[in-house]
Specification:
Helix content is about 20%, strand content about 40%. It has about 350 residues and is α+β, with helices and mostly antiparallel strands. The protein has three domains: about 110 residues, DNA Polymerase III, Chain A, domain 2, CATH 3.10.150; about 120 residues, DNA Polymerase III, subunit A, domain 2 (DNA Polymerase III, Chain A, domain 2, Roll); about 110 residues, DNA Polymerase III, Chain A, domain 2 (Roll). A nine-stranded antiparallel beta sheet has the order 13-10-11-12-25-24-23-17-21. An eight-stranded antiparallel beta sheet has the order 5-2-3-4-16-15-14-9. Strands 1-6-7-8 form a four-stranded antiparallel beta sheet. The mean pLDDT is about 95.
Amino acid sequence: MLCTKKNLIAGLQTTSRVIGGVTSLPILNNLLLKTDQGRLRISGTNLEMAVNTWVAGKVEEEGEITIPAKLLSEYVYNLAADKVNLVSEKLTLKVEGEKTETHIKGLPAEEFPLIPDTGEKIFVRLDGGGLKKGLSEVSFAAAYSEAQPEISGILFRFSGKTLELAATDRYRLAETRVGLEAEVIEEKALIIPARAVGEIGRILGEGVVEVYLREGQVCFKNSDREIITRLIEGQYPDYKQIIPAKFTTRAEFDRHALGQAIKAVSLFATDSNNIEFELLPGKDLIIAAASAQVGDSKIQVPGEIVGEKNKIIFNYRYLLDCLNTLSDERVVLQATNETTPVAMTPKGRDNFLYIVMPIKV
């Protein structure tokens, strides 16, 4: 098969993202290269998720082989050629450039784990850009817990013409909503592993994304890439019950200014990650932290604060995680007291909600 180096290296690097780590199965360090309806299909898997990438080119003869992912990717990347010709010769892949010829030993394609077919029935379509943005707004809040695998994943709830995404580690919660191209025939709630969610956002990019469902698995696919991942079994926590119905204090801030102030004060939160918010209606927000070894700091942040006065202690990392994820200019903080959940939302946007638990002292 003849293809451009640019397209080939893009396909190799994309598919190689699921490969890595220590494995007792050498075949899992390989990529499966196979001709598929006039294109080259590159497949990789770690048995938890799999990625298929299609590379356009001129197929002269059908063939398939598995080749070490790292070796092939690095060799092609350093190849001084605009076009690359790949020839499968039994258990060897011949890689030809303009003035080069290299032979790389591989393993039989028959030994490569079977990657299930997505089938032909599309569950739903959605915008890849919107999906990527939504995933970035919630993924940071997921836990990494073997004891509670449900919260090690992201909740995907398909209902009507909306995809609701949620993640929690029981100390904070992030929820956002993404529009679908059409109303789903059947409501579905899926828990997808956090690592797979990260790859979905990186691999698929912009454009229309199709979602396919299989027993225990889900596939996200665009025109030349697809990622298939297992689902996490179990019931996702009923997080809706912790969201307060009303608040007594509302404060609005410039997102960048608030984040900068938190970063500055956090340098003095060395004994713990705790910082204090003092919300003064009609005045500024006062952020403070103190350490017996380092000293103390207090910064006033201009804002629009209404309602009742409140003094609340937060883990500053939880606040920065959310502020760094958002791109909106202004954020709204709503609270009731020092022990109940606090909400953070972008001003003028109702499809995102962040809930964080205060630190009780």
